[in-house]
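OP here, attaching both records as promised.
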Amino acid sequence: MRELKISVGLWYMGATGDRFVKAGYRPDRTVEERVEAAGKIPGVGGLEMHYPTEINDANFKHMKKRAADLNLRFVMITPHLWIDPVYKFGQFSNPDKALRRRAVDFAKKVSDICAELEVSQMCYWPAQDGYDYPFQVDFPRRWDALAEGLAEWADHNPRQRIVVEYKAYDPRAHILLPNVGQTVTLLNEINRPNLGINIETGHALIMNENLAETFAFAMRYKKLFHTHWNDNSKMYDDDGMVGMVNLWETVELLFWLDELGYGGWFGLDLFPFREMPEDAVAQSIANIRMCYEMLDRVDRNDLRACFQSSDAIRIAVLMRKMLGGSMK
């Protein structure tokens, strides 16, 4: 069986509310209960969490020990900036210089905690770095501020990796880093070796990006540090189980990650409103494995040959073979 490095986010291992049922569709769990639940899922080897809502000054040492007892690694910690209403007009790009300073200092504090926990990776999601109406932001100044904040954070501890996760919209109507091209461009401009990208499949899909092309583009510039996996209808960031909607895009993505030598984590960034999170994680892992089984039914060289011929008829035959169908 293929070895996969699977991590799960603690934010969905309890109750997950929506706009209409804010308390969620099942009883909530304590942070420790969420860790325990994650540790019981076959195939899960890592945890991702937010500071301070899931890991904080009071619990981080205990959490590290409990995770180790369950053979779980801390894979990534994210400063939970966007839930603080003080940042409603921006985090690192806030027009208020004092709030920008506060946000960057908060992120640097998380870096210090990560160093103590021996967590080598953090994430920046520019959720509030955006706008909702025309004439609401000064684009050049906002991009300048965002770049300056990321550079300062990256320089705080060059041994730690920081990944930027782009998204087009939600919670803002427009987020300043909406796609892979703009994000990689900004990262190349900042030019810090420990600053890269975390691509979430769902965020790429709502921009109608082709997953394989998007991930390959980031890897071309050696910026793909981490991956997040889920699925959606390409209309909204549903955070559904992997491979349930966009199966072929997922299969092609896995092919290219293998082709280009990705060896990092598969972070499951789900939001199972009505399903038990353990079941959603287990099915997502099973679906990723199934996609690899589909790829293993054909000779990879046959697929590579199609890249040279662009023969869609041959591709159709190979895709049918992946599904266990006739080669005729």
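Record two, same layout:
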Amino acid sequence: MTASDDHPAHTHRPRPRRRSALVLVLVLVAGGAAGPPGARLVSERVASWAHGEALVVIVEDALPADEPLAWVRAEERRADAVLVVRWVEACDRLQVASIPRDLILDRSGEPLSVIFGTGGTAAVERALATAFALDIAATVTMDLGDVREVADAVGPVEVTLRAPSRDQRTGFAGGPGPVVLDADTAVAYLRSRQWEESRGGEWVPVAHDDLGRIGREHAYLAAVLTELRGAGFADRVRLGVAVVRHGDAAIHRHLALVGLVSRLQAAGDVEFLTVGVVAERSVDERRSPFSAGSLGAAHRFVLAPRQADVFRSDDCPTGAAAP
């Protein structure tokens, strides 16, 4: 299926870009550990500015115009992934938490993916701040085209797959064992919602919901952080420039954001976690709120007990940490 006059190809929507003179500082601090001793000292000192603050990252489910199915998302916006990044000062741990996009957090009864489409970044911030008592220093929004550009700046990274795996919709194929992801294969890997593994000579569907994709997302991010920690100062600056160029930043507290960026490559430990959810009633014919003739998400989630407190403690997290 290709774009037609009835279904115009998606073009990147003009979104308000809130920039700051501190962008250069962010880039330099992010590279501090690989820079001169003075830069390292600055990086360590500004870390305290991040205490109690969060960075939200939203990836929009929108495709570049040259993608065959780009027209599907031409008339609507949905969040494809939502991440909350925090630094836990007590144990110098960077916490990267995934919020399932199909999670219902407010009285509207709509999941985060739809809240983003109807109310934008500010609506997602309000929902997260209210549900989890978060202080949000900044939110960065990217679409899949932006993710591809940033992945290209990162360079190839390696993930390990337990079995031959594929997604015929996105074109990803690889495994078993180590698989090198360049920019294009990284996007195909991260977009997958129809993941299959070869078992006993047959392709078996595996983890079609958002929770399965979050696991792959974490594996990729862990590989990126490993690459970032081993990168030189110039490579960090190049990556920082790519994020600034392709991400739309709503910055509320600049100093807190500087502190968070400094921890991306210098924190003593990294923990990946997924906010606990329980499935809401599944409706096979749930309709899309954007189009009466289209199906919406078949599965939606609500918070599991006590998950509203997941970000309210400054104690060291106890979940599995990335190597």
